[in-house]
């Protein structure tokens, strides 16, 4: 088996997009300094941590296709050299560099504007997202320590489950390092919105692209709270439809885990959702106006959400990340009941994440 040192040497040969200085391209005698590469075009620098995984690979591919990205860093503890070589051959603008293992984490993170984290283990049938806590909490802690040190001003899109606990973990790591900025830490709940739009469109006989369902709360079971009373375009559902849609949206992840029968959880729809969300963050950073998405972010009662320190809400994205957290808006009785259930579970999950760092 290839040693980590050998793999690191191999990745360093391919990771600068072209060959390192003084290394000749096989058989042609061309040196890197003689190539006419002009370096990266203007744009944002994005790192994907966990880039060789089920989500990481299609996510990296889709980010390579995003015209707002000028530099794409792909980091993982395994297999990043292959994924990097493969994606770097796509004839799109972003320059791709690969990084393998803890010793290259700092290089992967230095100078990044946006860090997307799909690193960690996925569920198998019969597991809850919270069952992933023991492994994923440590992974997220290590990666966030790297972010605090190397790119403290980057926007962080955290995908690793359980999101309801990993986001509080990340916040605590950043607080400890003195770099916490609540505007820049976003738990990715976009897949809940993507699913809600799809399932609601199916019930209403609409094109999902024309449907917008706010999904608030968190990212696990009853904490996933679709606000069907606020769907756009405005529409009415009967009681049966509301029960069906709420259950299906709350259990969408489990539906995929069971269908994959032990081979992991949602990866392709998640990569799509993550890229849709990352693109919104980048357009916000660029200064585009009116970008509203749902995300699991730092929160408080005084802005019309809940008393919980984190909550998924509609947020306005801008140059500094989350520029405004929207209030929940009017809820019907069904949604108010759902909110009480969500809050109880969320409170425990948030506390679990906080205690993991403070203990
Ligand atoms: N927020 C959301 O809506 C969703 C979250 N997820 C979560 O995303 C995570 C990843 O899922 P998959 O890609 O399917 O899993 P996967 O197992 O296919 O890929 C995970 C990748 O993370 C890498 N990794 C492990 N430890 C690492 C470390 N310390 N540093 C960097 N990379 C590391 C692995 O080597 C692997 O390549 C899981 O926790 C899953 O539950 C999945 C779907 C939706
Ligand atoms: O269900 C899982 O474990 C993965 C996930 O978060 C989702 O698909 O929403």
TrEMBL record:
Active-site residues per Swiss-Prot or TrEMBL entry: 219
Pfam families reported for this sequence: Ldh_1_C, Ldh_1_N
A single cellular component GO annotation: peroxisome
UniProt cross-references to InterPro entries, sorted A to Z: L-lactate/malate_DH (IPR001557), Lactate/malate_DH_C (IPR022383), Lactate/malate_DH_N (IPR001236), Lactate_DH/Glyco_Ohase_4_C (IPR015955), Malate_DH_AS (IPR001252), Malate_DH_type1 (IPR010097), NAD(P)-bd_dom_sf (IPR036291)
Xref: NCBIfam families: MDH_euk_gproteo
The entry's keywords: Glyoxylate bypass, NAD, Oxidoreductase, Peroxisome, Transit peptide, Tricarboxylic acid cycle
Subcellular location: Peroxisome
Record domain Lactate/malate dehydrogenase N-terminal: where: 45-187
Domain called Lactate/malate dehydrogenase C-terminal: residue spans: 189-356
Protein name: Malate dehydrogenase
GO molecular function, one term: L-malate dehydrogenase (NAD+) activity
Keyword Cytoplasm: no
Residues bound to NAD(+): 50-56, 76, 136, 159-161, 270
Substrates-to-products reaction catalysed: (S)-malate + NAD(+) = oxaloacetate + NADH + H(+)
Example GO BP: glyoxylate cycle
CDD domains: MDH_glyoxysomal_mitochondrial (cd01337)
């Amino acid at each position: 088996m290839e040693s980590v040192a050998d793999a690191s040497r191999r990745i360093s040969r391919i990771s600068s997009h072209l060959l390192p200085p003084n290394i000749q391209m096989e058989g042609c005698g061309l040196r890197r300094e003689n190539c006419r590469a002009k370096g990266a075009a203007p744009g944002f620098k994005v790192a994907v941590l966990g880039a060789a995984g089920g989500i990481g690979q299609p996510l990296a591919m889709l980010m390579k296709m995003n015209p707002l990205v000028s530099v794409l860093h792909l980091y993982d503890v395994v297999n990043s050299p292959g994924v990097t070589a493969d994606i770097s051959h796509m004839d799109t603008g972003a320059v791709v560099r690969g990084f393998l293992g803890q010793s290259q984490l700092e290089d992967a993170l230095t100078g990044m504007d946006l860090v997307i984290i799909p690193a960690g283990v996925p569920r198998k049938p019969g597991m809850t997202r919270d069952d992933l806590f023991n492994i994923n909490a440590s992974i997220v802690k290590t990666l966030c320590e790297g972010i605090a040190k190397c790119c403290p001003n980057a926007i962080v899109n955290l995908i690793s489950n359980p999101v309801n606990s990993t986001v509080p973990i990340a916040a605590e790591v950043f607080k400890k390092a003195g770099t916490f900025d609540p505007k820049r830490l976003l738990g990715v709940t976009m897949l809940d919105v993507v699913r809600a739009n799809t399932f609601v469109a199916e019930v209403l006989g609409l094109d999902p692209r024309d449907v917008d369902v706010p999904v608030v709360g968190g990212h696990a079971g009853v904490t996933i709270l679709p606000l069907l009373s606020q769907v756009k375009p405005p529409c009415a559902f009967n009681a049966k439809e509301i029960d069906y849609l709420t259950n299906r949206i709350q259990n969408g992840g489990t539906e995929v885990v069971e269908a994959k029968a032990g081979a992991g959880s949602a990866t392709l729809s998640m990569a799509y959702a993550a890229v849709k969300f990352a693109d919104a963050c980048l357009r916000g950073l660029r200064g585009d106006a009116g970008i509203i998405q749902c995300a699991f972010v730092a929160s408080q009662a005084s802005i019309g959400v809940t008393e919980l320190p984190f909550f998924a809400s509609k947020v306005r994205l801008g140059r500094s990340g989350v520029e405004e957290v929207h209030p929940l808006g009017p809820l019907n009785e069904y949604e108010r009941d759902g909110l009480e259930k969500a809050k109880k579970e969320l409170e425990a999950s948030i506390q679990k994440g906080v205690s993991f760092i403070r203990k």
